[in-house]
Design a protein that fits this description.
8 strands, alpha/beta, TIM Barrel, about 50% helix, 2 domains, about 300 residues, single chain, 12 helices, about 15% strand
């Protein structure tokens, strides 16, 4: 069955974008900001927080980077205007990291400065290994200047434990996820058990040091182990939250919320929905099979 679902994903990639959008709606909140705002309102009504993301990455022109920056500023203004319980996630390569370091710094500085004025927070997402160190360096610079900023680390990277040990000394504000980019085996774990172990080892180091951690996973095993660790360390509620992607394992999400744990949902939107959606389907090919079946059984 898994082989069939993976084949369906490949089939979906050959379809016209307007057809693929039927699949994409599972994972994105819409193309326009207002659609994302409405989704966040519904989540907030359930007691669930959000982090909003303008889709897109790997930008190579300053015009595109500045357009993405302006949209990020509109997100922050939309959060403030609608009194949403939400913050902003940004991708450095969408905002000029692949163009020029100083330009990238100035663009992201404007976003974080605006967030600080609005008493909000910005999470700097981690992308592929080609920009890992640059992203960490950028984060530390922004943290020193503004404070209202966090970093993402990926458990499948072999360097992650060393990064945690270093960043713990700086009082880092983390989101810890498994990792999604395709990386060579010499720098990234490939086996599920290896990734799980590294995830839990990193989480333990973060908790031991008293850092805030966004526990970002849909893996029930990791969630259960994280709950045990929270009890072991008696972690205060303001030092962690569970985080999940919009449209993924919603029943588990609601259960975690019902148990009284804080949870935040990653709410992406924007014109660049296509590559993000294909990546989500590649992560979860069973969803492609399920949606395809529903298309052909509608009445």
């Amino acid at each position: 069955m898994d082989f069939i679902n993976k084949a369906i994903v490949q089939f979906v990639k050959l379809l016209p974008k307007n057809v693929v959008f039927i699949f994409a709606k599972q994972y994105i909140s819409g193309v326009k900001l207002q659609s994302a705002i409405e989704v966040v309102k519904k989540l907030n009504a359930k007691g669930i927080r959000a982090t909003m993301d303008v889709l897109g990455e790997s930008v190579y022109t300053k015009e595109e980077a500045l357009a993405a920056k302006d949209e990020c500023l509109r997100v922050l203004e939309g959060i403030e205007k609608n009194k949403l319980d939400a913050n902003l996630s940004i991708k450095p390569t969408q905002l000029g990291m692949l163009i020029d370091d100083d330009f990238n710094y100035q663009v992201i500085k404007e976003i974080i400065q605006k967030a600080k004025e609005l008493n909000n927070f910005v999470r700097i997402d981690m992308e592929d290994s080609s920009v890992t160190q640059k992203t960490i360096d950028l984060y530390l610079r922004m943290k020193k200047e503004f404070g209202n900023v966090g970093i993402v680390l990926q458990a499948y990277m072999r360097r992650t434990l060393d990064d945690v040990k270093f960043l713990n000394k700086e009082g880092a504000h983390y989101r810890l996820c498994k990792g999604i980019y395709i990386e060579p085996e010499e720098i990234a774990f490939k086996k599920r058990d290896e990734i799980r172990k590294n995830y839990l080892d990193a989480l333990r180091l973060m908790f031991e040091n008293g850092n805030f951690v966004g526990i970002a996973t849909h893996d029930k095993y990791l969630i259960d182990e994280a709950k045990k660790m929270i009890k072991e360390f008696n972690v205060p509620q303001d030092k962690y939250e569970f985080q999940m992607l919009y449209g993924v394992t919603e029943r588990m999400r609601d259960q975690i919320n019902a148990e009284g744990y804080k949870i935040r949902v990653y709410v992406p939107f924007g014109e660049q929905w296509y590559p993000y959606s294909i990546r989500r389907l590649q992560e979860n090919p069973a969803m492609a099979g399920y949606i395809t079946k529903s298309l052909f059984t509608r009445r």
